[in-house]
Amino acid sequence: MVHSRLSISIGGFMNLKHLVDAVLLADTKKLARQEREIMSQVLHYMCEIDRRKLFADLGFSSMFAYATTELKYSPDQAQRRISACRMLAELPQIEQKLDDGSLNLTVLGMANSFFKENNCGTEEKQNLLAQIEGKSKKEVEIILAPELPPAPVNGTTHKYSKTQTKVTLILDDAVVEKLKELQALFSHTKKRNLPELLDFLCTNELAKQTKASATVRTTHTPTTQTPATQTPATQTPTTQTPTTQIPTTQTFAKRASRAIPASIKKEVRTLAKGKCQHPLCHSRNFLQIHHIIPYAEGGLHTSENLKLLCQAHHARGHLGFVPK
C-alpha cells in the first residue's frame, strides 16, 4: 500500500517531510492511478443510478441536481461526470483509457459536445476518440475545430460601458502565437494579460513615434551661427578626450552591487534563447536569473555563474538543485 510510508501528525495533517524525493514522486504517481480507477467506479455507479432514475426517489428532478446537491460536485464537475458516465454506457471500451490516463473527463466533455453538435454515430465517435487519445486540451481543440474557410482578418467594436469598448477579433494562428510569446516575455510583470499587454505595446509605440517626430522637427530647425572668437595660439587650451572603456563581464563581476547589470542579464537571456535552462523545461513564462554559486557566498554576476530559470525551477535551485 502506498499509505504505509506516510505518517499523520497529531493535528491530522499528513506530514510527508521525511519522504525522499524518489519515494514522494513514486507514491504520488500510484495515488493518481488509484484516483483514476476510483473515478471509473464512480462513473459506473452514476451510470446505474441514471439508468434507474434513483435520483427521483430522493426528490431530485435530474441527474445534474442530484450530482451537485447530494454528491457535492461543482456544476462543471457534475456535468463532466454525467457526460462521461453516459458515454461509458455507450462505449464501454473507454474505461481502460480513463484508467491509464490517455483519456480524461475534460477531453471527453469536449468530444461529447462535438458528438451532439454533429449528430455523430457510434463508429464516428469511436474513430474520433481514437484520434484524441493522449492529446492535450489544446490539441483536442485543434482536432475538433470546424473545417471552415479562413475568415477575413478584421475586427468589430461596440461600446461595452461608458469607459470600455468590446473588441472582437479573428486572428491568424501565427499572430496569436506572437502574442503568446510577448505575454511570456512580460509574464513577470503586470503586462501578462492581453488587455494590459496591448495597452503597454500601444503606449510604447506612440511614445517612440512622438519622439521620432520631435527628432525630425529638431533636425530641420535652422540654427543661428555665432561668429567664432579667435583665441591666440598661446592661449589655446589643450583638452584630452577621455577614453571610453566598454564594460566587460569581468568588470561587472568586481562590482559589489547585488543588482545584476542589464548587459549581463541580456547576455544570459541570449545564451538561454529566452527559455528556462532546465533540461526538461522550455518555459518562457516567469523567467528569473539564478546564481549557481549564491551571491551571498561570493558568486559573481557572470554568464558562467548565472542561469535563466522559470519561477518553479528557480525556487528548486534555492533548495539545492542546479541544472547543468
Task: Provide a descriptive summary of the structure in words.
The chain is extended. Mean pLDDT is 81; it is low at 243-249 and 251-255. It is mainly α. α1 packs across α3. Among the domains are: 2-144, no CATH class; 249-318, no CATH class. The strands form 3 sheets. A two-stranded antiparallel ribbon has the order 1-2. It has helices spanning 21-52, 63-69, 75-90, 94-100, 105-118, 122-132, 137-144, 173-185, 194-219, 249-254, 262-272, 311-318, and strands spanning 7-8, 14-15, 155-159, 165-169, 287-291, 306-310.
| Averaged pLDDT | 81
SSE class:
mainly alpha
**Strand and helix order:** EEHHHHHHHEEHHHHEEH
Counted by DSSP, the helix tally is: 12
Molecular shape: extended
Helix content: 40-55%
Summarize the structure.
This protein is mostly helical.
Note the topology:
Layout lengths: L6 E2 L5 E2 L5 H32 L10 H7 L5 H16 L3 H7 L4 H14 L3 H11 L4 H8 L10 E5 L5 E5 L3 H13 L8 H26 L29 H6 L7 H11 L14 E5 L14 E5 H8 L6
Antiparallel strand pairs: 1-2, 3-4, 5-6
